Amino acid sequence: MQYKDQYNREFKTLRVSLTTNCNLSCYYCVAYERLPQQANKHSWQELAKKVLTIDQTLQLRKIRLTGGEPTLYPHLIELVSYLKEHTTTPIYLTTNGVLLKKILQNIPVNTFECINLSIDAIDPEIFYRITHAYALENVLEAFYFGIEHGHRFKINTVVLNNINVDQIVPLARWAKTYNVPIRYIEFMNMGVHYQKFKNYFFSNQRVLEILKSHFELTPSPREPHATAQYYKDPEGWQVGFISNHSHSFCSDCDRLRMDVNGKLYGCINQKEGLYFPENVGDEQFWKTLIRQKNNHFIGSPLPMIFIGG
């Protein structure tokens, strides 16, 4: 079934929050507050059934497993293995990488289409300042293991003013060494920072200006529904910019989010989700959900870990 709003937007990407638990306390996500932690209330079999039902109903193009930190979900391998057996829709993973190596050691190389790995600093002390954990070594070990065994990666970096701006270029040089795309993400007006994020906001236009003084970058055409605007260097290495605030991509957003309670969110700006309907063919339910989509990013007091970071 196809459900579109008046701007021709539809749901083609599903982001599934497996847990709100996380083994880091990144400043841009939780600051210094302790947020309630929740495991997914469904068994992994029930969760798989819901994901596959949505996949078949909406004819998805992409399924992304996220959190919280999805590698803390105790049945991640069983879940993704089952999904791979029952759908041809590509499955992606977003992770902080601290526990990733053990996962990679126990899955086939083609399990995930791509792994988005969050690394906000290549300097261990700055990494600690952001995450409150001396865990960079674990993350890099997982990355190097994954590269060696043929897994595909993208690096995600949130830039915070006065914290990790000096990591922009070192991270880019490091990613280029492995020909891995890196995406710089603007600090978002979400969760504990809602309505007070500007002190740490650093626009991606400024990031681009910094990078252009070190790399020869030319813009690539933006793909439909993409969150990132990419640039390439002469060797084909890619740098992306996810700019929710300065260059919103809401106009053709195709994302649907599921939280750990099974609620669905048609837009990242939404504070309240809708429970999965008993009748998956309920046309009014999907129309209500698609109407949640905004035309620009405004943020939400709801932390990202609850609806799939």
Task: Provide a descriptive summary of the structure in words.
This protein has 309 residues and is of the alpha/beta class. The protein is 28% helix and 17% strand. The protein contains 10 helices and 12 strands. Strand 11 and strand 12 form a beta hairpin. The model has no long low-confidence stretch (mean pLDDT 91).
Topology:
Layout: E1 13-17, H1 27-30, H2 44-58, E2 62-66, H3 76-86, E3 91-95, H4 100-104, E4 115-118, H5 124-131, H6 136-148, E5 153-159, H7 168-177, E6 182-186, H8 204-212, E7 218-219, E8 229-232, E9 238-242, E10 255-258, E11 263-265, E12 274-275, H9 283-290, H10 304-307
Parallel strand pairs: 1-2, 1-10, 2-3, 3-4, 4-5, 5-6, 6-9
Antiparallel strand pairs: 7-8, 8-9, 10-11, 11-12
Helix pairs in contact: 2-3
Estimate percent helicity: 25-40%
The helix-and-strand class reads alpha/beta
What is the residue-mean pLDDT, rounded to a whole number? 91
- Unreliable stretches: none
Number of strands: 12
Spatially, the strands of the biggest sheet line up as 7-8-9-6-5-4-3-2-1-10-11-12
- What integer value in Å does the Rg equal? 19 Å
Topology as H/E string? EHHEHEHEHHEHEHEEEEEEHH
Overall morphology: globular
**The biggest beta sheet, please?**
12 strands, mixed
Calculate the terminal CA-CA distance, rounded to whole Å: 27 Å
- The number of helical runs is 10
Beta-strand fraction estimate: 15-25%
